[in-house]
Fold:
Amino acid sequence: MAIAEVGRTAEARDLAEYALSIEPRYGWAAHSRAHIAYEDNEPDGARPFLAAFLDATPREGVVWSHLAWHLAIAELHAGNHTRPDAVRGRRRAGGTHGLCAHQGL
Structure:
């Protein structure tokens, strides 16, 4: 993710994709991928990826709720102003840990 923060998003994307090819449920690589999509102004790149990742990984994972927040932000970025509520409802329906209060979901 640090590589993306200094403008080297193509290299960061390659590294995140490589990490995910080794361990598809690696939350921190998914987190990097979400940031890369945001930095590259591509909400459509983040939304399908994050939705699939969240569906495939346990909700108890270390960064699951934060990635759900990223998905909600990507939906807002794409102009889908009702979709973040669906992300929030989906999260609460899981019956496990709630989203972080500072994330507003």
Observations:
- Helices lie at 2-5, 9-22, 27-39, 43-56, 64-77, 83-93.
- Residues 2-96 form a domain with the Serine Threonine Protein Phosphatase 5, Tetratricopeptide repeat fold (CATH 1.25.40).
- The mean pLDDT is 78.
- The longest helix spans residues 9-22.
